[in-house]
């Protein structure tokens, strides 16, 4: 079987979700960096793989898959070992609710093209506002679902989505002391190899000044 190829940007939270899931499920893959700073997501070559002109794209099983959550669900359905969705339908719904709170309600308003349109001079204030807003609500939701991780004591897709969002929040100085549950879960996930290996600072396209081993 051909090795899957992930088209990704080191700092993209959506790319990080896919990296963590591939690592968690012990799927070997190659990375092809797509620089969002250089607008490489808009080149004709890349657009032919991903007409949405965003990262990530995962080439796997003879197809190019787009949309990180669709990719995570595909990996879960085709590689069910080391599951990231609970068996219990209620818990699954709780996981998917948190996934959407991050992937559908939070990341889109903090995305590069949205921030550019809102105005570069407002960038950090805009990002800080929307991530603080989201975390205030997610922290309350986690009070009813969390154990060691977002939903109970097993790692799920909710954790996979939460960790990159916390990294982004830290970049714009969101006051994370207001969100103790989110912080605790984030720190616990970052002790796990799958999350550590997927960290932006360990990617081949990470600039030298940020790179970690
Ligand atoms: N819903 C998409 C969002 C993809 C997305 O917005 N990716 C960002 C990086 S996290 C991107 O490529 N942004 C480029 C741009 O806005 O031009 C997914 O989950 O894959």
Automatic annotation (TrEMBL):
Belongs to the GST superfamily. Zeta family. GO terms for cellular component: mitochondrion. NCBIfam families: maiA (TIGR01262). Residues 2-83 form the GST N-terminal domain. Keywords: Isomerase. GO terms for molecular function: glutathione transferase activity; maleylacetoacetate isomerase activity. PANTHER family: MALEYLACETOACETATE ISOMERASE. It comes from Glomus cerebriforme. Pfam families: GST_C, GST_N_3. This is Maleylacetoacetate isomerase-like protein.
């Amino acid at each position: 079987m051909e090795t899957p190829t992930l088209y990704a940007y080191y700092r993209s939270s959506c790319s990080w979700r896919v990296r963590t899931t591939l690592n968690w499920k012990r799927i070997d893959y190659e990375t092809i960096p797509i620089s969002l700073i250089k607008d490489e997501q808009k080149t004709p070559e890349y657009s032919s793989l991903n007409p949405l002109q965003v990262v990530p794209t995962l080439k796997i099983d003879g197809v190019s898959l787009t949309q990180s959550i669709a990719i995570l669900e595909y990996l879960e359905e085709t590689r069910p070992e080391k599951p990231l969705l609970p068996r219990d339908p209620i818990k699954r719904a709780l996981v998917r609710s948190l996934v959407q709170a991050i992937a559908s309600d939070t990341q889109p308003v903090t995305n590069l093209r949205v921030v550019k349109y809102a105005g570069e001079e407002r960038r950090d204030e805009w990002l800080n506002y929307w991530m603080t807003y989201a975390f205030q609500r997610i922290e309350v939701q986690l009070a009813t679902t969390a154990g060691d991780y977002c939903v109970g004591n097993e790692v799920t897709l909710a954790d996979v989505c939460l960790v990159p969002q916390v990294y982004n929040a830290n970049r714009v100085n969101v006051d994370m002391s207001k969100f103790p549950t989110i912080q605790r879960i984030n720190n616990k996930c970052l002790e796990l190899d799958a999350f550590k290996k997927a960290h932006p600072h360990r990617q081949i396209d990470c600039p030298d000044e940020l790179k970690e081993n």
